[in-house]
Write a structure and sequence with these properties.
It contains four helices and nine strands. By secondary structure, it is an alpha+beta fold. It starts with a helix and ends in a 14-residue tail after the last strand.
Length: 150
């Protein structure tokens, strides 16, 4: 079994380099607060033994990233358009589209982007200190579509 740091490093390759995280998390169904995720469940998602076509991962943002997002979020996110690494050894990194702001500041403010192929999204929730990556390999945008995100 891989250690938690290796699993975290492997998981965060889908994130842009400017989004520093401390750990992979799961969201508790009750009050929405961060909770732990079992190493076994995480390894199932991250190891290439069985491809999971749909799911999500949460990340706890590092303090310096939370602070930067509170001060000037769009400045930090404007160049966050490429993942750190590809999902597999020979894959190209995910290309992320433009970031969109939603909600009213300060508590409900959140930011979202979609992958250029429409199969994945990133949600940044600065006040909660969380980034959520969700994907659905069966979801994609039709070629030539002007739509950025669904």
């Amino acid at each position: 079994m891989l250690d938690p740091q290796t699993l975290h490093r492997r998981a965060c390759r889908v994130l842009p380099a400017c989004l520093h995280t401390e750990a992979v998390i799961a969201l508790d169904g009750g009050d929405g607060k961060p909770a732990g995720i079992s190493e076994r469940a995480l390894a199932t998602l991250l190891l290439p033994l069985r491809h999971v076509h749909r799911g999500w991962l949460g990340f706890r943002l590092a303090a310096e990233t939370r602070n930067a997002l509170r001060r000037r979020p769009m400045v930090l996110l404007q160049d966050a358009t490429q993942a750190r690494e590809g999902l597999s050894r020979h894959a190209v990194p995910i290309a992320w589209g433009p970031w969109q702001a939603a909600g009213e500041p300060p508590r409900a403010r959140r930011f979202m982007t979609c992958s250029r192929d429409g199969r994945a999204r990133l949600w940044v929730l600065p006040e909660s200190g969380i980034v959520v990556y969700d994907w659905d390999d069966r979801r994609c945008l039709p070629a030539g579509s002007g739509e950025r995100c669904r």
